[in-house]
Design a protein that fits this description.
By secondary structure, this protein is an alpha/beta fold. The chain has two domains: about 45 residues, no CATH class; about 200 residues, 3-Layer(aba) Sandwich (Glycerol-3-phosphate (1)-acyltransferase). The protein is about 40% helix and about 15% strand. It contains eleven helices and nine strands. Strands 1-9-8-2-5-3-4 form a seven-stranded mixed beta sheet, sandwiched between helices. Strands 6-7 form a two-stranded antiparallel sheet. Helix 5 crosses helix 6 and helix 8 packs across helix 11. The longest helix is centred in the middle third of the chain and has 14 residues.
């Protein structure tokens, strides 16, 4: 099991890959930490998905704890809706936290992440850029109909800096609809963290130039490794009953309200 950026490019876009110079491939290998990632994959390949996440966080010397989780009924059915400052580490941390409490957890993710084979057992993929195929749709619906706690990042993308503040983009309201359909309460979650100025500046410049491709996403693995040695607190809010979500406001307005509640947890 290994990551080989050159082979990935050749398999995805062979016509383009042959024109990419070697120095560019070398640079891509550096920013995605190809050698380091492969060491993790090889060293932890025999572990389960949740243990792979735990081992990765431990090797990176990342410490984390949750506040408010003890107030959550372990027999409840929940959707944990969280802000998304890191684009990866936050998923692994909250998966461990939730798993430790409930014995299981599932994360709703972009189907591209299914290429991260060691973590696929805790992933529930959705296609964010096209029609959902029948198999993914069935898995998605079955997960919500089960009793397994579900973690979702309604913004879809990791946070960006806007007017000097690091914050998620608009939270998509599909998680409100699924909470009502599956009769799950929603638990707001807040991570207090940010990426580097380089990442946010690149995102800002790219946006101002009108470039639609999220170029800064190439640096997410590098940004992840920059968090090594960090210490994080995860704030867990009070559950919002699925029955309450049916009263008054639209799903879109409820999504905005849950986002506000999550950010209000910041200490």
């Amino acid at each position: 099991m290994e990551v080989n950026i050159k082979k990935i490019l050749e398999s995805k876009s062979p016509a383009i890959a042959k024109w990419i110079p070697n120095f560019a491939i070398k640079y891509l290998r550096k920013i995605i930490h190809e050698d380091e990632v492969n060491r993790y994959l090889n060293d932890f390949e025999s572990l389960s998905s949740i243990d792979f996440a735990r081992a990765t966080l431990k090797r990176m010397n990342i410490s984390y704890r949750a506040e408010g989780l003890t107030d959550i009924d372990p027999n409840g059915r929940y959707i944990f809706a969280s802000n998304h400052p890191f684009g990866g580490l936050d998923g692994m941390m909250i998966a461990d936290i939730i798993n430790s409490k409930f014995g299981d957890s599932k994360l709703i993710v972009n189907d591209i992440l299914m290429n991260l084979t060691p973590l696929t057992d805790i992933f529930v993929p959705i296609n964010k850029h096209g029609k959902q195929d029948i198999e993914k749709a069935t898995t998605y619906n079955n997960t919500f109909n089960s009793n397994v706690p579900i973690v979702t990042f309604p913004a879809g993308l990791c946070s960006r800096r806007k007017n000097g503040v690091v914050i998620d983009s608009e939270w998509k309201h599909s998680f409100i609809k699924k909470a009502i359909q599956s009769k799950r309460d929603i638990v707001p979650v807040y991570f207090d963290g940010k990426l580097s100025d380089f990442f946010y500046n690149l995102s800002s410049i790219r946006t101002k130039l009108g470039v639609k491709a999220n170029i800064e996403m190439l640096y997410l693995v590098d940004e992840m490794f920059k968090q090594s040695g960090g210490s994080f607190v995860i704030q867990i809010g009070k559950p919002i009953s699925w029955k309450e979500l049916q009263n008054g406001a639209s799903n879109k307005k409820w999504a905005g309200k849950v986002k506000e509640i999550a950010y209000a947890l910041k200490k």
